[in-house]
């Protein structure tokens, strides 16, 4: 086979000639490949079709182990074959691989972690390297373990691989080559004494320091043809280790910098693109239509237009565009769709769920009541503020002038003195219990020693509710979904609206979310209480529906 006829080159031609949708940096990477086929010999470079095909054929031994594709062979798509075939096919004088450092930036859920199993397993088995060491590396043990656990599942699922490799709790061993694969993280295993032949660096945009990266790359110096395989989505800070790699990748594919040892595949649409245009979706998501449908992707886009706090992560995680800074969680015009006034009296006696966010002594305390009725969720929010050491007017002038108007309109309850009067908050809870069928009162135990004891004495149905990802992610997502579907009625409470507009939305690698008080631009206590209340109400409704299905 001539190199120009190889699947790696066919993909490159399809991109360059416009038959395959791709962003500018992928097009330049493909053009680089085609140009090097013509001129690379002058620099001692050549494309080995057999070596490229060997790794592509090896991929067929691997099976998917999760999701709807579980049990099926790992069939590399053309864009994946281009990356793997390029890295293993290009050689330099002496027959060693050309590429030592690789950077793969693709949007989330396109299988870049899964297809990293191909080089990770291949280099441990068939690279003719003495005692090859491979590492799944990330800043945290949990993140590093994602790829490592998937490798173990893939080996167990394949008779061919399980005959060649032994799977243990903390390592994968290859008796024939005396090789091993293990996890490596900044917060876990020691990196002393490692000698990597292959290193998969996962989610590089989360790497906040250079130490682990430098230990890995510097430790490869004794290997003849190691591979540093860096995979990531776009990040939020170009002034970072990942940002530097991305910018260097652009310089290399544009030809500004000459580095024959660096391979880059950066699936970015133009930074000023219209993210509503499906043509740009494909540029960031080469597996669009394979791993997920265009219809589902369109739903995610529409959700991000309604919950504007989702838009930065939609642009970064799903459009693979670098974002800087934070945006509002829920746009005010979207929130105001639920602002029509309502009379709360018809809700009295109905089941209700309450969220309590007790502040520090001088801050805002909030109670939110969620009352589901006829597919809508009615929110009643009560906010409490101590007047402060210099008096309420002085505090309002210093912090927020609207406090005075909110107090006068009954949206804000002001307590005399310098701290919140917890007994007054308890009396407000008593009033709420008298009016509604109170099912649960969710609270964060921080600072609640006195109040929790008192509420237990009064037989309130207390439910402890943490503020981390584990406790807040599902309620916050339920809240976002209710807003997006227009199911929340809040009567235009201005204190609640202000708090919702202040929320900074944090998201971790597993797409868990929570409000971040430290990074939010103002007080968010009423919003936090509302998320807790609505989340408990929605969870209870889900349990009720499940019981109805079981008994039907």
TrEMBL record:
Residues 78-251 form the Terminase large subunit-like ATPase domain. It comes from the Bacteria. Residues 257-541 form the Terminase large subunit-like endonuclease domain. GO terms for molecular function: endonuclease activity. InterPro entries: P-loop_NTPase (IPR027417), TerL_ATPase (IPR046461), TerL_nuclease (IPR046462), Terminase_largesu-like (IPR005021). PANTHER family: PROTEIN YMFN, PTHR41287. This is Phage terminase-like protein, large subunit. It comes from Cereibacter sphaeroides (strain ATCC 17023 / DSM 158 / JCM 6121 / CCUG 31486 / LMG 2827 / NBRC 12203 / NCIMB 8253 / ATH 2.4.1.) (Rhodobacter sphaeroides).
């Amino acid at each position: 086979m001539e190199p120009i006829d190889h699947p790696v080159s066919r993909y490159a031609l399809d991109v360059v000639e416009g038959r395959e949708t791709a962003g500018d940096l992928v097009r330049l990477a493909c053009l680089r490949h085609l140009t090097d086929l013509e001129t690379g010999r002058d620099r001692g470079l050549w494309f080995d079709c057999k070596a490229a095909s060997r790794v592509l054929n090896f991929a067929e031994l691997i099976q998917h182990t999760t999701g709807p594709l579980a049990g099926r062979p790992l069939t590399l798509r053309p864009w994946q074959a281009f990356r793997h075939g390029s890295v293993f096919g290009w050689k330099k004088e002496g027959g060693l691989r050309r590429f030592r450092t690789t950077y793969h930036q693709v949007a989330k859920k396109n299988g870049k972690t899964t297809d990293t199993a191909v080089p990770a397993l291949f280099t441990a088995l068939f690279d003719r390297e003495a005692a090859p060491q491979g590492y799944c590396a990330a800043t945290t043990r949990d993140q590093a373990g994602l790829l490592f656990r998937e490798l173990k599942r893939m080996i167990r699922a394949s008779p061919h691989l399980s005959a060649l490799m032994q799977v243990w709790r903390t390592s994968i061993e290859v008796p024939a080559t005396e090789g091993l694969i293990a996890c490596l993280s900044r917060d876990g295993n020691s990196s002393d004494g490692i000698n990597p032949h292959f290193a998969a660096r996962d989610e590089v945009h989360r790497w906040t320091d250079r130490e682990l990266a430098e230990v890995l790359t510097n430790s490869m110096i004794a290997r003849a043809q190691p591979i540093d395989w860096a995979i990531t989505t776009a990040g939020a800070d170009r002034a970072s280790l990942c940002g530097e790699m991305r910018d260097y990748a652009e310089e290399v594919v544009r030809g500004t910098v000459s580095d024959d040892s660096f391979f880059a595949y950066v699936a970015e649409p133009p930074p000023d693109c219209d993210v509503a245009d499906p043509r740009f979706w494909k540029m960031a998501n080469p597996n669009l239509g394979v791993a997920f449908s265009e219809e589902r992707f369109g739903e995610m886009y529409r959700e991000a237009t309604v919950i504007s706090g989702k838009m930065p992560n939609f642009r970064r995680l799903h459009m693979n565009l670098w974002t800087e800074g934070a945006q509002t969680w829920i746009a005010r015009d979207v929130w105001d769709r639920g602002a029509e006034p309502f009379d709360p009296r018809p809700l009295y006696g109905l089941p209700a769920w309450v969220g309590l966010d007790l502040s520090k002594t001088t801050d805002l305390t909030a109670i939110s009541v969620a009352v589901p009725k006829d597919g809508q969720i009615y929110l009643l929010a009560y906010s409490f503020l101590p007047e402060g050491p210099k008096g309420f007017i002085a505090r309002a002038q210093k912090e927020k002038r609207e406090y005075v108007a909110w107090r006068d309109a009954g949206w804000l309850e002001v307590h005399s003195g310098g701290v919140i009067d917890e007994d007054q908050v308890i009396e407000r809870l008593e009033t709420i219990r008298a009016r509604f069928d109170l099912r649960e009162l969710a609270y964060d135990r921080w600072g609640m020693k006195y109040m929790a004891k008192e509420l237990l004495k009064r037989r309130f149905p207390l439910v402890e509710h943490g503020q981390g990802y584990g406790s807040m992610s599902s309620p916050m997502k339920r809240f976002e979904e209710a807003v997006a579907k227009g199911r929340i009625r809040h009567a235009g409470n201005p204190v609640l609206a202000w708090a919702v507009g202040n929320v900074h939305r944090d998201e971790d690698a597993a797409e868990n979310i929570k409000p971040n008080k430290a990074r939010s631009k103002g007080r968010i206590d009423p919003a936090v209480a509302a998320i807790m209340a609505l989340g408990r109400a929605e969870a209870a409704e889900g349990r009720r529906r499940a019981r109805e299905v079981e008994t039907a």
